[in-house]
Amino acid sequence: MDTLYYSPGACSLAVHIVLEEIGRPFETVRVPIPEGAHRRPEYLAINPRARVPALRTEGTVITEVGAILSYLADRERTSGAPTLAPAPGTLARARFQEWLSWLSSSVHIAFAQIWRGERFSDDASVHGTIAETGRRTVRAFYREIDTRLETVAKVTGHPHALEEGSSAVDPYLTVFYRWGHRIGEPMEGYRSLERLAHEVAARPAAKRALARENVTLTT
Ligand SMILES: N[C@@H](CCC(=O)N[C@@H](CS)C(=O)NCC(=O)O)C(=O)O
Question: How confident is the model over 34-56, as a mean pLDDT?
């Protein structure tokens, strides 16, 4: 059985929602970052990088949101369960991968600038400037996300990131929508992203994941 290591409201929420969407039994281990649980020896034995998420599956551990989501999507495709990603080797799959890579390598990092200034400089006096730059970057990314979603919606009428329909990208985007509320960004200004996040959160799978993590879409 899969085991997900997560911290409430962290990027691990995307994997949590997808595991619920898949609907097979899985276990969860809470690793609350605010309590420093991700730095304890028992978790470092799971992920020496001291980050969540980690997924224990088939006797090994996979880390990185994008890798875990791709793995789960492909595994479920072969088992005939719901489609979480377009088939490998297609342009749609490249678009899927493009979203995952950009969200983890750029959007997530802009939030790290806001919340984890110490990763960028040892000099605490510049952390404010780093956070401000992060905020500006996050806003530009939200605008870009919203425009891209709007473009897809114009063609398809649906709120999902991929023209082909819902995929594992949607829960990942929902995490960033939630984080926008955490930094006090007026998220009602990003209507397409808001629509997507509300649609994801209204599904029973996301409701179960949010309830287990004891968080909501906005808090
Ligand atoms: N590149 C990794 C980043 C994972 C990551 O940074 N996770 C955060 C939570 S969202 C974390 O574990 N932070 C621990 C810390 O900041 O010390 C991924 O995409 O999975």
Answer: 98
